[in-house]
Specification:
The structure holds 2 protein chains of 2 kinds. By secondary structure, chain A is mainly alpha-helical. Chain A starts with a strand and ends in a 12-residue tail after the last helix. Chain A has one domain. In chain A, helix 1 packs parallel to helix 12, helix 3 crosses helix 4 and helix 7 runs antiparallel to helix 8. Chain B is mainly alpha-helical. A two-stranded antiparallel sheet of chain B has the order 1-2. In chain B, strands 3-6 form a two-stranded antiparallel ribbon. In chain B, strands 4-5 form a two-stranded antiparallel ribbon. In chain B, helix 2 runs antiparallel to helix 5, helix 2 packs across helix 7 and helix 7 packs antiparallel against helix 8. Chain B starts with a helix and ends with a helix. Classes of the chains: A mainly alpha, B mainly alpha.
């Protein structure tokens, strides 16, 4: 097996895909979270400010989804094809809400009428909530196992079976986490009464997340035992859940001290650690089959050719510093509190 | 309806709707770069006004382009799982490049383009505009490379058999520069640039007819007209090269485009016509041997016809392909004619007095749109029955795990959502056009005839100085 710095190319690409989707979760996570709070703001000016906090960056955030999906398609086309066709309904719903959210941001401010703005506010908020929820639902299904047969084909009933106790629990976990994450982001961008309100709202979201996270972890340990295999057999891996818990614990500690930039950093780290934990327990599997472990889709049987992986590593190596560079530049340009001007939404 | 037809209809519908927007974004991107460069170069406020105005329209098309584009990326996996497994190794690098180099670039700098006017220097803002434009042009490259690989596969070998057969990449650059990519990239680029150019021409022609925003519209119209003339003439060249490529690499498609059935015979070129598929006859206005001439400079040169291929390898919708192709060509010619006609009047100094010509330009905005759509329909229907030409059939490529009911659900949702989106797009676009490039306190809003406007301007300039001093 050919390796690069000690890891085989398939493992490298597993890390790349995981990295991009983590980045996506951190970025669109605060986006969806901010949107989920939208109807909690009563005043027109507050809603405008909240929307303009994500205005200049939401598109760039969404690109990470496109890159992640592309990376999955490119590196593990069999996993990409099997996952998307098996999770047809949730992915289609996800697409519809992505469209509605993009449209509501674009169209909301174009008319003055109250009913127009209220309508788009409701669509924006509902879409954001559903998107945050659906991400957890899909992850839950992937972790729990999907009925794949020996030909990587989906053998279940796809219309509603994606909704089950575990995936719903995961969905509520991701929703509350993103709402806390989004609130912290908004706290960096707002001032005055809106800021004061958000301080309180963030605490509720954090509380809800802690409960949801606790329940999900218990359920996982008790009923989805293949997800704690490595933790139980390789004690060194316990460092990860410990780091995760410490990182989550830091969030309320820092928000209490109103150190929201640091809180945001730890919120982002928590999201990363959660996904790393999922990745660690899954590795080397990508999609677990609930029919039989023989049907598991892993990084070796789902991967593109070695040549293709090597080419793409080069593309990633060149592209990543560029992307990080101008992403940093854009966030820097719009740093600080939101100022509404004639170019705002 | 069976799963294959539903999957095809859904893909056709979603991609056709999507394709209204990125070409507009690319074309408007070019116009924004031109206007903003002239502003930064000359310092004249009129160009800044144009740049800012068209940025607002651009934002609208870009947003819808992104939302409908994400659908396409996922639709490969949801509805065409077997195709995705087959081409993933090949497409992988093309799509990865598109995402990392192109999408990230345009979406990143988009924030500064739309919201950074008051936050960065005019030079930095211009760089952002250029970044967005380059990003959009570059993303067109990669998706056309991927589609061109489907038409003329290169740089690959096949591994595995039956349902597990896949294409694997053997040579990255051979894949990128496959036989048709360069011709098709340039043809798609010009089609997109024309879509944006003719939108600019249409809107400013509309203002001129209504007697509003006259001076700014005259300037914008002239700049866009120069672009339109060069681009439409260029499109003739890229179109010809593309057709030559199709003749060489996809002869069945070429035969369908002109309704040419005989195995090997001189082929006619139709100006317009109708294909009777059952009797394999075409009736219409033709240039005998015209196609032979275009391909080999010899009216008697044989061209391969549809009957040279087994029936199961022929595209089945010959008349549709014929019509779409001919509509596209007719539009290409019309764009050249319209541009040259306007240039003629400009040369004679009477361009803005020809109201009928301005009205033609108002409606001409639809021509590149229809041309782009019909061209793609001809290309993709002509590619049938293959999804990868000569290697993978469309009927073998759709997702086995998805039921007809699921596709009905998503197809109906897409139809309603996209219909709503389209109505909103037209409504908001019209609002922005009616509002115009200026804010409330401008004096350009009143309809004026040419002579009076100039006299008034002189008067205002004469009056303003004493007021300032006082």
């Amino acid at each position: 097996m050919e390796t690069l710095f000690g890891l085989d190319y398939q493992t490298w690409w597993f890390l790349v895909v995981g990295g991009v989707f983590s980045g996506y979760a951190i970025l669109d996570g605060f986006d969806f979270g901010a949107g989920a709070w939208h109807l909690f703001f009563r005043k027109e000016q507050s809603r405008r400010i909240a929307m303009n906090a994500v205005g200049p960056v939401w598109d760039g955030n969404e690109v990470w989804l496109v890159i992640g999906g592309g990376a999955l398609f490119a590196g593990f086309p069999i996993a990409y094809a099997s996952l998307l066709s098996a999770m047809y309904t949730p992915f289609m719903l996800f697409l519809f809400f992505i469209i509605f959210r993009a449209v509501s941001i674009e169209f909301r401010g174009k008319e003055e009428m109250r009913w127009w703005r209220q309508l788009w506010d409701v669509i924006y908020s509902f879409s954001s909530i559903m998107l945050a929820f659906l991400l957890g639902v899909v992850l839950g299904n992937v972790l729990m196992g999907i009925p794949f047969d020996a030909n990587q084909n989906y053998g279940g009933d796809a219309l509603l079976s994606f909704l089950n106790p575990y995936s719903i629990l995961m969905g509520l976990t991701s929703l509350s986490l993103f709402m806390s994450h989004g609130a912290i982001y908004l706290l960096l961008k707002t001032e005055g009464k809106l800021y004061d309100r958000l301080v309180v709202l963030q605490k509720y979201a954090m509380g809800a997340f802690l409960i949801a996270f606790g329940l999900t972890s218990l359920y996982t340990l008790m009923f989805v035992t293949h997800l704690s295999d490595k933790l139980m057999t390789m004690p060194a891996t316990l460092a990860l859940p410990i780091l995760l818990v410490l990182s989550i614990a830091n969030i309320p500690r820092l928000t209490h001290k109103k150190k929201f930039l640091q809180a945001f950093l730890f919120s982002s780290l928590s999201i990363s650690f959660l996904l790393v934990l999922c990745a660690l327990e899954s590795y080397p599997n990508l999609l677990i089959s609930s029919i039989s472990p023989e049907n598991n889709i892993d990084i070796y049987n789902a991967a593109s050719s070695l040549k293709s992986l090597k080419i793409m590593m080069i593309i990633v190596a060149i592209g990543t510093p560029l992307v990080l560079g101008y992403t940093y530049f854009v966030y820097k340009t719009f740093s600080g509190k939101v100022k509404i001007d004639e170019t705002s939404y | 309806m069976d799963v294959e037809i539903l999957a095809r209809v859904q893909f056709a519908f979603t991609i056709a709707f999507h394709y209204i927007y990125p070409p507009l974004s690319i074309g408007l991107g070019m116009m924004m770069v031109i206007f903003e460069s002239m502003y930064v170069g000359t310092g004249k406020k009129v160009y800044e006004t144009l740049a800012r105005f068209w940025t607002k329209i651009f934002a609208l098309t870009f947003g819808i382009g992104v939302a409908t584009g994400i659908v396409m990326e996922f639709e490969f996996g949801t509805n065409w799982a077997i195709y995705s497994k087959y081409v993933g190794d090949i497409f992988g690098s093309a799509l990865a490049a598109e995402g990392i180099f192109a999408f990230a670039l345009e979406s990143g700098f988009l924030g500064i383009l739309l919201f950074g006017w008051n936050r960065v220097s005019s030079k930095v803002h211009l760089i952002s505009t250029i970044g967005v434009f380059f990003g959009s042009m570059f993303s067109a490259v990669w998706i056309v490379v991927a589609n061109s690989w489907q038409q003329t596969p290169a740089g690959y070998h096949i591994v595995g058999e039956g349902i597990n057969a896949r294409a694997e990449i053997t040579d990255f650059w051979a894949m990128v520069f496959n036989p048709s990519s360069v011709d098709r990239i340039t043809h798609v680029w010009l089609g997109a640039l024309l879509a944006g150019t003719f939108l600019v021409l249409s809107v400013h022609a509309y203002y001129l007819i209504k007697g509003r925003h006259i001076e700014i519209s005259k300037k914008a119209f002239k700049i866009a007209l120069i672009a339109a003339t060069i681009l439409s003439l260029g499109q003739l060249s890229t179109g010809h090269h593309s057709a030559e490529g199709v003749a060489e690499n996809q002869p069945a498609k070429l035969a369908a485009m002109e309704g040419h059935y005989e195995k090997s015979a001189p082929a006619d070129m139709y100006i317009m016509g109708w294909v009777d598929q059952d009797n394999q006859e075409v009736t219409g206005i033709k240039i005998p041997g015209g196609l032979s001439f275009l391909l080999d400079y010899d009216f008697d040169a044989p061209v391969t016809g549809l009957n040279a291929f087994p029936k199961e390898d022929q595209p089945s919708q010959v008349n549709a392909i014929f019509q779409f192709y001919h509509i596209m060509v007719a539009i290409g010619m019309a764009l050249i004619g319209l541009s040259l006609l306007a240039c003629f009047y400009w040369w004679r100094g009477r361009l803005f007095e020809q109201k009928w010509l301005l009205i033609a330009f108002v409606f001409a905005v639809f021509l590149p749109q229809i041309g782009n759509q019909t061209g793609w329909f001809a290309a993709e229907m002509g590619r049938q029955p293959w999804v990868v030409y000569g290697l993978l059939r469309t009927s073998d490529a759709f997702s086995q795990a998805v039921s007809a009911n699921q596709i009905w659900f998503s197809l109906i949702m897409f139809f309603f959502i996209y219909a709503l989106l389209f109505v909103l797009f037209i409504y908001i676009l019209n609002k922005k056009i009616q509002h115009g490039p200026y804010d409330e306190q401008d004096s350009d809003n009143r309809p004026l005839t040419k002579g009076i406007e100039e006299a008034l301007l002189k008067e205002i300039q004469g009056q303003s100085e004493p007021k300032v001093k006082g």
